[in-house]
Specification:
Layout (H helix, E strand, L loop, with lengths): L1 H19 L5 E5 L5 H9 L3 E5 L14 E7 L8 H11 E10 L26 H9 L3 E7 L2 E6 L2
Parallel strand pairs: 1-2, 1-3, 3-4
Antiparallel strand pairs: 4-6, 5-6
């Protein structure tokens, strides 16, 4: 199930980026593994997607490159030290590169106690739109979109 959702997250993003940037794109799927069929689709479109997952694809060599885009599908909530991961992701993106994040945003602080998402013991970090506004205002990123489960940021040149 997560595979299909991950694919439905990455493929439309890539289609959007293709419209704005000519040529082959190098991307990083950070924190999850995409299925072979979707990887083939990306490669057939002339792009390359590296993958990093600390458990299932712990290839640290991919963390030494710079990318045109990075996808983080349902991984930000698992970061025990979000500032460390933010610094890493920031370093990995080219100026002009895109960071696409899928994580449920907490919209009502008063509703936190009843929010089912916090009940998963592996979910240790939670975010609001203001979190990403703060990051954009205090880093080399522009916040383009943050609503519901999607955050899209671009690293400024």
């Amino acid at each position: 199930m997560k595979q299909k959702q991950l694919s439905q997250f990455i493929l439309p993003l890539l289609a959007q980026l293709e419209q704005q940037q000519a040529g082959s794109l190098l991307g990083l799927n950070f924190g999850r593994i995409l299925d072979d069929e979707s990887l083939t689709t990306i490669e057939n479109a002339g792009h390359k997607l590296n993958q990093y997952d600390p458990f299932f694809a712990p290839n640290h060599d991919v963390l030494k490159l710079e990318y045109d885009f990075i996808c983080c599908y349902r991984v930000f909530e698992h970061f025990q030290y979000p500032i460390k991961e933010w610094a890493l992701l920031s370093r990995l993106l080219h100026p002009g590169g895109w960071l696409a994040i899928s994580t449920p945003l907490l919209t009502e602080l008063d509703g936190f106690a009843k929010w089912h998402y916090k009940n998963n013991l592996t979910h240790v970090s939670f975010y609001q739109r203001q979190t990403f506004e703060y990051l954009a205002n205090n880093s080399d990123f522009e916040l383009l979109f943050a609503a519901k489960d999607l955050v899209l940021m671009q690293k400024t040149s």
